[in-house]
Amino acid sequence: MSTHHPRRPALRAVVLFLICGFALLAGTGVASAHTRLLGSDPADGTSLDTGPARVSLEFNETMQAGFSTITVVGPDGTQYQTGDVTADGGTVSVAVSPLGAAGAYEIGYRVISEDGHPVTGSVVFTLSTDGPAAAAPTPSATGPTPAAAPVAAAPAAPADEGGMPVWPWVVGAVVLIGGGIGAALRLGRS
Amino acid sequence: MTVPAATARDRLRPALWAVLAVGAAVAATALAGATAALPFGVVVTRAGADVAGVACVGLALVAVLLPGPTSATRREIARTVTTVDRSLLVLAGGWVVLVLLGVTFRAADAFGRPLAQLGGGEVLAWATRLAAGRGLVLTAGCAVVVLVCALVRLRDPDRIAARFPLVAALLGVLTPTITGHAGSAPNHQVAVVSAALHAGSAALWVGGLAGLLVLVAAHRPLLDATIGRFSQLAGVCVVTVALTGLLGVQVRLASWAALLGTGYGLLVVAKTVALLALAGLGALARRRLAAGRTPVLRWAGIEVALMAVTLGLAAALSQAAP
């Protein structure tokens, strides 16, 4: 079409340069786009005399209960979280059963941010005196989740099982679409 | 007159570009430190869906750019339109399938489950209750619209104007960016608008050039009638891509040190280099074209290949944490 602007690319380059510079200068504070932990109760690194009834974690995004898992793992590997995770705004929390022996307790979390990615991490607090459950020699007697050897702080999968596996449906849909297109192309040719 | 000689190689070229894009995405993901199989499934489906989407945009753009038929070009134009619609049908179908697979992989990734144990409820929850999931569902919807448009146009090209599949394909390319990282960024509006513009212009530019090269380049009168308008559009797109890319990085990257210190930063650098090279090649091609010299076409192939790599890097970037 019109080719009578030989100088336009140069002009464009200058404008581009200026706007880029402006954009850099005018930029506001920098922040991460991902979900991140703002704080927790109990906070990371605190030392407590008595175990908390609940632990809660606060994030910079609105959280949904079904997508969040929280584990509270004691010094001997026993898990102490109990009941379902609840969400309120950016805070997710879970009830904690009476803690056991004094030592380091790790609150592990796995949440899913609005952009669909999982975000995991952990917070550690220290129990300075033995809790009510410490007397029991076998944690499975009082522990709320006598799961077979809870490995370290790996957060368990979300509670709600999806039920029947989804992959046969996906395969079916793929075959259906592929077949339909093949048929349409064949019909379109004749 | 068509040129039947180089058709076999020409037909292989789009496949090569697609492989380049997906390969670049996989390589970038590996370099960024992924080891498990699932992240690769996620990034391959994402890159594949992007390639299909961009190809749909490009094909529909070719159909829009085609001039009105004259007695000399009527037959060639009708043939090209049919090729566009048949390819659109296949690519839109592939797009739907890849988005479906992508949703499945990403749900498995989010819930930390192997694919075989992933339940329908979880996929549904991921796809409907999260912004990212809703975005991908919208993309699938747009791809279905493109598919239906192509189907109807195969029967009767005058029934639906070529601009409808173009708009649908563009919207499909935009939505995942709107609901991806940018959607949850603190600098919300700026990030969203710039990401959408970025994806849209990149798709028009890359897809349009590839489409012209594959479908129109062999036919000189058609090429002459379309390349001028495309060149103008491409110029605007390059500037938009550069500006919005810079804005996006500025919003997301913590510091200048992160540019070289993190995998995400390195991806940004790689994309910038590729963009500069592309803009240079494009400017050169345009100057040669204006001067009436023709070996532009060989370079355009290289340019699209480079674009494909950039696209793959972009897909990897979209799945990487800053």
From TrEMBL, chain A:
Cellular localisation: Cell envelope
GO cellular component terms, semicolon-separated: cell envelope; periplasmic space; plasma membrane
BP terms from Gene Ontology: copper ion transport; response to copper ion
Gene Ontology molecular function terms on file: copper ion binding
Transmembrane regions listed in the UniProt entry: 166-185
Pfam family, one: CopC
Residues in CopC domain copies: 34-127
Keyword Secreted among UniProt keywords: no
The entry's keywords: Copper, Membrane, Metal-binding, Signal, Transmembrane, Transmembrane helix
Protein name: Copper resistance protein C
Species for this entry: Pseudonocardia hydrocarbonoxydans
TrEMBL record, chain B:
The UniProt record lists the keyword Membrane: yes
Keyword terms, alphabetized: Cell membrane, Membrane, Transmembrane, Transmembrane helix
Topological category with respect to the lipid bilayer: Multi-pass membrane protein
Any one GO cellular component localisation term in the record: plasma membrane
Alphabetized Pfam families for the sequence: CopD
Domain of life: Bacteria
Keyword Signal among UniProt keywords: no
GO term, biological process aspect, one: copper ion transport
Membrane-spanning parts: 48-67, 88-108, 131-152, 164-183, 195-218, 230-251, 263-284, 296-317
Residue ranges annotated for the Copper resistance protein D domain, each copy included: 225-317
Cell compartments where the protein resides: Cell membrane
PANTHER family with a match to the protein in the record: INNER MEMBRANE PROTEIN YEBZ (PTHR34820:SF4)
Name of protein: Copper resistance protein D domain-containing protein
Annotated source species: Pseudonocardia hydrocarbonoxydans
